[in-house]
Amino acid sequence: MPTSSLQKTALGHIRVLDLTRVLAGPWCAQNLADLGAEVIKVERPGSGDDTRSWGPPYLRDAEGNNTTEAAYYLAANRGKQAITVDIATPEGQQIIRELAAKSDVVLENYKVGQLKKYGLDYESLKLVKPDLVYCSITGFGQDGPYAHRAGYDFIVQGMGGFMSLTGERDDLPGGGPQKAGVAIADLMTGMYSTIAVMAALTHRDRTGEGQYIDMALLDVQVSMLANMNMNYLASGNAPKRWGNAHPNIVPYQTFATADGHIIVAAGNDGQYKKFVQIGGLPELADDPRFSTNPKRVEHRDVLVPILADMVRRKSKQEWIRLLEEAGVPCGPINTLNEVFEDPQVLARQMQINLPHPTAGQVKLVASPMKLSATPVTYPSAPPLLGQHTGSVLAAVLGYDEQQLQALKAKNII
To answer: Has keyword Cytoplasm (predicted)?
Structure first.
């Protein structure tokens, strides 16, 4: 890559061989691509990443017809080059070894031990690339009694404690465990994997030493419970579900307005006082049951129904305007159409449009990473299956047209 290009991106000097599919691994690879890395996504000939068919919805072409690219796939694969290789064949395995030898990072999320039988595990590939950074992502890690289990985000949300904290209180209608609306264990594993890869690359650049990274969805799910973990470890009592309320602060929850819902996060007594004054019930600020946060927590079952009735008397936008003017933390609960029409989201340019070979244009969500000297880049839309097989094998490995045609004839690429 030209020096001028390297200076414009943080990872323009890095090549990543991406053997992952679905979400956690592709999310990590997409982060690295956004930061400028050359990412080569390897898929099975004919079918590719499972998420390509996880629809509807699918991307539509200029005539409004469905393409073969599911929205799920589009979420995690921008900026990559896509090649197809059958790694179950000796010839396909040789292609992967040759690509690994010319790469800085290998990402994979196969079952434990599956790539070893192909000679594509870390111990095998570091023989051809001693300073390789090799990151494996699985449900439960490379060791332990669950190592050979398949890992699914939904199951891990339950096993890792998240669903014991998420959902309405058990004693209220609709109470019980609830998963997140997105695959948080997968996404956070992708984020932690990105950090681990960056750390390993920094170590390699300082010492010349590569290393193996063992990432597990369950480890990440346990780790990310943060203060709830510590609430348990400090007290010995497992935290309970509180729905849209907070165990330690009142009022810090959702409320139904006359025409929608809002969030009110009164973090101190002064904010609470302003809240009830705006609502026309200033006497609630002086009531000894509610005058301090500890008292409000103690008497939440009395106070919250009163506040809920108060909030229902005004519209969502009226509450937001009045509370913001008074400095009381608040916000709406937006649907996604409202999110992408929000002035702040628009100002931050969180939606991007990229050229697409079959749809003409594809709408995507921008990276949230804002770097001043090395901004993220969006070189290309999520690729079609095998879109770059010929160009990558020619440019990176020097394969000529005769070699490519021979591999295609044998369905290896």
So the answer is: no
Reported as a single tens digit per residue, the pLDDT across 335-363 is: 999 999 999 999 999 999 999 999 999 99
Decide if pLDDT at 1 tops 80: no
106 and 54 assigned to the same domain: yes
Residues 6 or more apart whose Cβ sits within 8 Å of residue 280: 310, 313
For the chain, what is the domain count? 2
**Total length of the chain:** 413
- Active-site position among 143, 186, 309, 400: 186
pLDDT of residue 62: 81
Structural contact between residues 251 and 275, judged by C-beta atoms closer than 8 angstroms? yes
For residues 191-198, average pLDDT: 98
DSSP conformation letters of 115-142:
TGGGT-SHHHHTTT-TT-EEEEEESS-S
Half-sphere exposure of 372 (CA within 13 A, CB side): 0
Q: Which residues pair with 81 in a beta bridge?
A: 40
Residue 216 CA to residue 197 CA, distance in Å, equals 14
**Judgement on whether residues 130 and 274 belong to the same structural domain of the protein:** no
Q: What pLDDT digit, counting tens, does each position of 228-287 carry?
A: 999 999 999 999 999 999 988 999 999 999 999 999 999 999 999 999 999 999 999 999
Nearest to 40 by CA among 393, 359, 308: 393
The answer as to whether 244 is a domain residue is no
Q: Residue 101: inside a domain, yes or no?
A: yes
